[in-house]
Amino acid sequence: MQSRDRENNVNMDGLPQEAYTEEDWRREFRQMKKKAAAKKRRTILLVLLLILVLLVAAAGIFIFLSDRLQTKQTAQEAPAEQAAASESVEAQQEAPTAAPASEPAPAEASAAETSHGPESMYAEAEALLREGKRTRAYAVFRELGDYRDAPARCKSIAHELMVKNSVYLSAGLLHSAGRNKDGTARAVGQNFFDQCKVSDWKDIVSVAAGGWHTVGLQADGKVVAAGYNSDGPCDVSDWSEIVAISAGEFHTVGLKADGTVVAAGSNDYGQCEVDGWTDIVSISAGRNHTVGLKEDGTVVHTGKYAEEMAELDDWTDIVAVSGGREHTVGLKADGTVVAAGMNEEGQCEVYDWTDIVAVAAGGKNTVGIKANGTVVAVGYNEQEQLDVKYWSNVACVSPGDYHTIAQRKDGSLYSAGLMLSGQRELGGWESVAPAE
């Protein structure tokens, strides 16, 4: 059957049929095929472009799910010693208690009451303060209740501890958080779980950016949090008397004014088993472990890589600690640095560091501030997050897994490393500052 164009004696271009040969028809059909092929290629390219956009948008979620799956699959590899220790504690708790001693004579009882009365306890608390043992002093003042000015002394000590432990610039896995001078908070970067929605926070004295969540400490000792919460790292609303916070990948830890520690979130490796800790003055949450600095300069730890970090048990004269992805670093009173844990990227090669005033452990890297304000760094640097050689006059620094941020003493900021999610967009961040 002839086409309508042929019936009308015209070709597909509207030309007279007589002027169109068979070869012309073949050439026209070939052109049509070429046009159809070109259209098909354009469609394929558009589909590929759409797939690429979706892959980029899902990059953060993919990283998250991969890390989470790895955590769950290897959770059973935690040292068997933890189970044995738990059984030992339970056995001790179940052990029968000694029979109560007979009641003392009236004169002895009176003497005991006098030596442990309110006035004696008040004097003890003041002595502890003179020795610099603030957490112990706080515990004694709190036990005194409303006696004399004990409540005011508790409030004063808590504020001092908050200021001492104030963190106002924090780098997480793919986001950054900061505390503004006016007590508000800010955050930039990956926001799949709303971990950057902190603009409505008030009275903040410290911030902590974790793997997929952000935590803020308020001046009243309460804690706020935003972001991923399937494992409960943001279940901190009932915490009180907190003076320091730290966020791991899926857990959060808080230091109380009396030197004890609380934790929330994933406990796959025992990283939240801190109930028995006392006399703690500083805390740090690594990826799957937690570290605490005691008043006497020794260190306690719990969680993954306990065997690799066994050296921490022998550390002394430590004034600051920081937990990274798979390692821990400690700053000694003499300005030298120690490290323990996994060292596949050289993140623990810090033994020649001197004149250090601050240290921080990132993903698989370690950063330190020297007394002259310059910065040193070792470890994983594939994203150039350790390109800090020319940084100067630095007041604080925070390394994440793939980026590093710092503030200079004049308020300006440095950043290095991955920029995938905007975690280095620190324009206007000159307003970040520590609590006073």
Features:
disordered N terminus; 2 domains; Methylamine Dehydrogenase, Chain H; 436 residues; three-stranded antiparallel β-sheet; alpha+beta
Structure description:
- Helix 6 (118-130) packs antiparallel against helix 7 (134-143).
- The longest helix has 36 residues, at 22-57.
- This protein has helices at 4-7, 22-57, 59-73, 80-94, 106-115, 118-130, 134-143, 150-164; strands at 169-171, 175-179, 185-189, 204-209, 213-218, 223-227, 242-247, 251-256, 261-265, 280-285, 289-294, 299-303, 318-323, 327-332, 337-341, 356-361, 365-370, 375-379, 394-399, 403-408, 413-417.
- It is elongated.
- It is an alpha+beta fold and 436 residues long.
- The strands form seven sheets. The chain has a three-stranded antiparallel beta sheet, with no helix packed on it.
- The chain has eight helices and 21 strands.
- Helices cover 27% and strands 26% of the residues.
- It folds into two domains: 114-161, no CATH class; 165-431, Methylamine Dehydrogenase, Chain H.
Any chance you could write out the topology, listing elements then pairs?
Layout: H1 4-7, H2 22-57, H3 59-73, H4 80-94, H5 106-115, H6 118-130, H7 134-143, H8 150-164, E1 169-171, E2 175-179, E3 185-189, E4 204-209, E5 213-218, E6 223-227, E7 242-247, E8 251-256, E9 261-265, E10 280-285, E11 289-294, E12 299-303, E13 318-323, E14 327-332, E15 337-341, E16 356-361, E17 365-370, E18 375-379, E19 394-399, E20 403-408, E21 413-417
Antiparallel strand pairs: 1-2, 2-3, 4-5, 5-6, 7-8, 8-9, 10-11, 11-12, 13-14, 14-15, 16-17, 17-18, 19-20, 20-21
Helix pairs in contact: 6-7, 7-8
